[in-house]
Specification:
347 residues; 11 helices; 12 strands; globular
């Protein structure tokens, strides 16, 4: 089956990012000795090189390789794959001795539900999902709505037109958390502001996380309707939205990783105002370390604003210059942590 294609317009060097992917395996990401322990991650739609969610997970694996001296394995998705493909991929990783085996994204829930009981001595990490639990399953989840609320505050303060846009990759409950927090943050900051929302695909079509052209077209539509700040929670497709916003001179807000610092988006970085970050990297590292320490994490492991598991990046110097905006963001952050603001998880 064909790999999900990287889009050249975001400047991703395919030779550097290409992986020898199959439905049931992945490449070794280091040349450490064969007697070292192994941790494995199975990527979500878009794969490594998405400049966002998957790359954040990879950063956690890299950190574990460097600091814990373990061997990392990676497994890439295939376009249009089934749950059976994911079951096969996770089974092979566990059978070959990887521990932990981490599914990057809620799409791995059904596969982990089937595979984890067959390998009771292996810890399985499931990112962004709590629907499947077990004695050897760690559910690594985040308060995305909290970080998105801060993005909404920033968007409302940065907007000159009073119209901002939200783009979701696929209309699923997880992404609606991003929309809900963002819209609430905008409206709490400027009740007269208008939030344009657009989802790229509907389940069971998850290609909205993988196609930058869809993100670009959606952003162009919102820009044409007056939006001057665009926030996309759409994985690799979000890079298209960033390109469209930057080309028009509007602000873009990134997601999952600090996209201002992503090499593949360097051409557009000056217009990436900020990014809603999820500490996927540390969640992956922490799970691997817990296994290495002989005390594997299990159950729900939640990362919110209070633990800096989600947040808003300030890498763009222009963001730091907007003192009224940054003060409003910091106040909102403090109020959420203190319980003065309860952020919605659904629009």
């Amino acid at each position: 089956m064909r790999r999900i294609t990287r889009i050249a317009t975001v400047g991703i060097a395919s030779a550097a990012l290409a992986l020898s992917a199959t439905a049931c395996g992945g490449k070794k990401s280091s040349d450490t000795s064969s007697d070292s322990t192994t941790a494995a991650i199975a990527y979500d739609i878009g794969g490594r090189g998405d400049q966002s969610f998957n790359d954040a997970a990879y950063a956690g694996l890299q950190k574990a390789e460097s600091e814990l001296k373990i061997k990392g394995k990676e497994a890439e998705p295939t376009e249009g794959e089934s749950d059976a493909d994911k079951v096969q991929r996770l089974t092979e990783l566990a059978r070959n001795g990887s521990n932990p085996v981490i599914g990057v994204g809620f799409a791995y829930a059904k596969a982990i539900e089937k595979v984890a009981p067959k390998f009771p001595k292996t810890t399985f990490g499931l990112i962004d999902d709590t629907s499947v639990t077990g004695p050897n399953i760690a559910n690594l989840v985040f308060n995305e709505e909290q970080g998105s609320y801060l993005a909404g505050v920033a968007a409302a303060k940065a907007s000159k037109t009073g119209t901002v846009g939200f783009i979701g990759g696929v209309e699923v409950p997880l992404i609606k958390k991003f929309e809900a927090g963002f819209a609430q943050g905008v409206k709490d900051t400027n009740p007269n502001a208008k939030v344009l929302s657009k989802y790229l695909t509907q389940p069971p079509d998850f290609s909205g996380f993988a196609k930058p052209d869809l993100g670009k077209a959606a952003a162009q539509g919102q820009l044409d309707n007056g939006a001057d700040v665009i926030y996309a929670a759409a994985g690799l497709a979000g890079s298209g939205a960033i390109e469209a916003a930057a080309t028009k001179g509007a602000w873009a807000i990134g997601v999952d990783s600090d996209q201002y610092n992503q090499a593949g988006l360097a051409k557009f970085k000056d217009k990436i105002l900020t990014s809603v970050t999820k500490d996927v990297s540390d969640s992956v590292f922490n799970l691997i370390k817990s296994v290495e320490d002989g005390k594997p994490q299990v159950g729900e492991i939640r990362y919110g604003l209070d633990k800096e598991g989600v947040g808003l990046a300030d890498s763009n110097p222009e963001y730091k210059k907007m003192t009224e905006l940054t003060a409003a963001v910091e106040k909102a952050k403090a109020d959420i942590i203190a319980g003065k603001i309860t952020v919605k998880t659904a629009p």
